[in-house]
Automatic annotation (TrEMBL):
Protein name listed in UniProt: SAM-dependent methyltransferase
Protein species of origin: Nonomuraea mesophila
Superkingdom, taxonomy of origin: Bacteria
GO molecular function terms noted in the UniProt entry: S-adenosylmethionine-dependent methyltransferase activity
Transmembrane residue ranges: none
InterPro entries: Methyltransf_11, SAM-dependent_MTases_sf
Length: 267
């Protein structure tokens, strides 16, 4: 989830990074690690997610805004992590189910949501353990960009939604991804693997993402039987500027871009 930084003589300057200090390029020694091992830093990630600019004051409010009135809706939280979005949707009256591929994050979700919470250890690249048409909505916050191929995962999400149900997605913004890729001569087109090092709670984890151009995202959604009903590029929550003065000090309003949001309807 990188944003670009200072300019140089031949490269125009863009506002300073939204990227927190704990995200860095991959260094020697980390490159051999298993990528995306959330179990290895679950507590630290969950704590960071709880209050971070990108999650608590940008992604989550935007997703809740997109979801609107969810009272009584059966919602699946795909890649639920430690459950902050599930908790917020449940507080608004939704009936929540969640799954994640990290057992440790699920443990934290259970601690947050209670023993009776409907939580499953499952991988989005495998068939999901839910019947057809079981949900009114699926929310997929910041999970699809971990997957190289979206075909089978989107088909599964479509299968578990009732016809007319909604899939609400947030992903790394393809434009922001591309600015990073362009620095090393990378192309906008095609699927780009990128790696980062995340150091949280004294542990350094190797993270691997797959960026893709906007048209590839649209093709994947429509190919899986979804109609695109909305695309959103929200601003951070109003209180973010006050809470994170360092990030916003040199950043005129309208220059904060990090994630892209889709509202989709199952056809
Ligand atoms: C950036 S975190 C976001 C967590 C949560 N959705 C949120 O927004 O707070 C990404 C989550 O996706 C999960 N994840 C990554 N790949 C996955 C996969 N193939 N299947 C299920 N979950 C996955 C991770 O374990 C992690 O919980």
């Amino acid at each position: 989830m990188a944003f670009t930084t200072e300019g140089s003589a031949d490269q125009p300057s863009v506002p300073a990074a939204t990227q927190p200090s704990w995200i860095r390029p991959v260094s020697e020694g980390t490159e051999q690690a298993t990528p995306n091992d959330y179990d290895s830093f679950a507590e630290a990630y969950s704590a960071e997610n709880e209050t971070s600019l990108l999650n608590a004051y940008y992604e989550r409010p935007a997703m809740l805004n997109l979801a609107g009135d969810v009272a009584g809706r059966r919602i699946l939280d795909a890649g639920c992590g430690s459950g902050p979005l599930s908790a917020a949707l449940r507080d608004r009256g939704a009936v929540m189910t969640g799954f994640d591929s990290s057992a440790k994050l699920l443990e934290l979700a259970r601690r947050r949501l209670g023993d009776g919470a409907d939580l499953h250890l499952a991988d989005l690249t495998d068939p999901l353990p839910f019947p057809d048409a079981a949900f009114d909505d699926v929310v997929a916050s910041l999970v699809l960009h971990y997957l190289e191929d979206w075909t089978a995962p989107l088909a599964e999400l479509r299968r578990v939604l009732r016809p007319g149900g909604r899939l609400l997605v947030s992903v790394n913004h393809p434009f922001v991804d591309f600015l990073d890729a362009a620095r090393s001569g990378g192309s906008y087109f095609g699927i780009r693997e990128t790696r980062e090092e995340w150091t949280l709670g004294g542990h350094t984890a190797l993270m691997r993402f797959y960026g893709r151009p906007l048209h590839a995202m649209a093709d994947a959604f429509t190919g899986a039987g979804f109609h695109i009903t909305g695309i959103d590029e929200p601003s951070p929550a109003p209180e973010a500027r006050e809470l994170y003065p360092d990030v916003f000090a040199d950043r005129p309003s309208g220059t904060f871009v990090c994630f892209l949001f889709f509202a989709l309807q199952a056809g």
